[in-house]
Amino acid sequence: MFRRILECTGSKYLEIEFNEKLGISKGDVDGALADYNQAIKLNPSYAFAYNDRGIVRERKGDLDGAMADFNQAITINPKYAAAYRNRGEIKRKKGDINGAVADFNHAVKLGLHSADIAETPD
User: Which CATH fold would you assign to the domain 11-118?
Assistant: First the structure.
C-alpha cells in the first residue's frame, strides 16, 4: 500500500486519510492502524484520525481501544456525530444498551440520519 506521511499540514491530512481508507478497503487493517497512529502522533488534535482508528480497532476486535478512540474524538470535537454513532455501536456490542441508545440519539440530534445508524455493521 502506498503510504507517505510528510509534514502533516492542510491537504497532507487528506492524503493520509485516503491512504488509510484504501488500506482498510483492501484488508490491510494493520497498515491502516499504523497510518492512523502516525497521523495522531503528528497532530494529537485530529479527531477524524481518532474516529477512524477506532473503526480499525473495532475491526481487529479491540473494543476497549475503539471506545477510547471514539471518546477522544468526541472530546476533541463534541459535535462529531459519527463518533457518537461509532461509540454507540461499541456500547451496544458490550451490552450497554442504554448508553448505546443515548449515543445514537445524540448522533441524530447532531444531524446524522437515523438510517446511517441502522446500517452499522455487526
Answer: 1.25.40
Q: Which three cell numbers stand for residue 31?
A: 497498515
Enter the DSSP assignment of 6.
-
- pTM of the predicted structure, to 2 decimals: 0.77
- Distance CA(77)–CA(52), nearest Å, equals 14
- Model pLDDT for residues 43-92, shown as the tens digit of each residue: 899 999 999 999 999 999 999 999 999 999 999 999 999 999 999 999 99
What DSSP letter does each residue of 48-107 carry, written as one string? Answer: HHHHHHHHHHHHTT-HHHHHHHHHHHHHH-TT-HHHHHHHHHHHHHTT-HHHHHHHHHHH
